[in-house]
């Protein structure tokens, strides 16, 4: 069999201008990036098409990549957004801060170490942005009563694992707490003003109360 050589000719190369153009469009075109996990990202382009980018493999489902084998604007966009901190790197996912009206994205590890069930938004630990992460001394509002409270302790224990002895039930079961997820951590709070009577401070007004984290909203 006679083998043939490919035609002796220069291969088409991308001109620097074409390369620059893809880089430029990767930045300037409105695109959104949805991290799917496992290094996969769904990119919605300006024309509302969605393409799947496999960042590790450097692949995209768009025609530019499939037919021209170029590092298309979608792959570039994912890389740019990761560098800029707009999109989580492989191994992390983005979830929304759970504080009311806060739509800040928080990057969390993709594995289950932090208890985040990525395929079930109804379960797992609530996630908060830096602004809405609780610290002792923070003021929070009880969503049930509107009371302003001062945080004294943030626990790792779940609401269904902490008992309120006086009520003979768990924090999760106590009153309207049952409206909230039972697997969220509990937070210890005090009412900001102790009640002082002529015979002294009312002990109960200094008590630490525990609430499921999601019942409390951090306010500025
Ligand atoms: Zn592409
Ligand atoms: Zn927030």
Protein traits:
single chain; 220 residues; alpha+beta; five-stranded antiparallel sheet; four-stranded antiparallel sheet; 3 helices; elongated; binds zinc ion; zinc; zinc ion binding; zinc-finger; Znf_SWIM
Description:
With 220 residues, the chain is α+β, with helices and mostly antiparallel strands. It folds into three domains: 16-83, no CATH class; 91-130, no CATH class; 139-218, no CATH class. Strand 12 and strand 13 (200-201) form a beta hairpin. The strands form five sheets. Strands 14-11-8-7-15 form a five-stranded antiparallel beta sheet, with no helix packed on it. It is 14% helix and 29% strand. The protein is built from three helices and 15 strands. The site of one zinc ion has 8 residues, from loops. Residues 1-31 are annotated as: Disordered. Residues 51-83 form the SWIM-type domain. This is Zinc finger SWIM domain-containing protein. Keywords: Metal-binding, Zinc, Zinc-finger.
């Amino acid at each position: 069999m006679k083998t043939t050589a490919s035609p002796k000719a220069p291969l088409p190369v991308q001109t620097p201008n074409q390369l620059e153009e893809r880089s430029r469009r990767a930045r300037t075109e409105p695109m959104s990036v949805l991290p799917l996990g496992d290094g996969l990202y769904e990119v919605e382009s300006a024309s509302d098409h969605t393409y799947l980018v496999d960042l590790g493999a450097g692949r995209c489902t768009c025609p530019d990549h499939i037919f021209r084998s170029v590092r298309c604007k979608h792959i570039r966009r994912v890389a740019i957004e990761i560098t800029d901190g707009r999109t989580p790197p492989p191994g992390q996912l983005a979830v929304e801060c759970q504080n009311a009206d806060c739509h800040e994205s928080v990057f969390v590890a993709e594995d289950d170490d932090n208890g985040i069930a990525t395929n079930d938004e109804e379960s797992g630990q609530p996630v908060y942005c830096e602004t809405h992460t609780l610290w002792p001394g923070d003021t929070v509002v009880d969503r049930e009563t509107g009371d302003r409270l001062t945080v004294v302790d943030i626990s790792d224990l779940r609401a269904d694992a902490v008992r309120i002895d006086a009520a003979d039930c768990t924090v999760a079961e106590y009153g309207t707490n049952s409206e909230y997820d039972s697997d969220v951590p509990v937070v210890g709070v005090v009412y900001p003003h102790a009640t002082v009577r002529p015979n002294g401070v009312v002990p109960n007004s200094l008590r630490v109360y525990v609430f499921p984290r999601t019942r409390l909203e951090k306010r500025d």
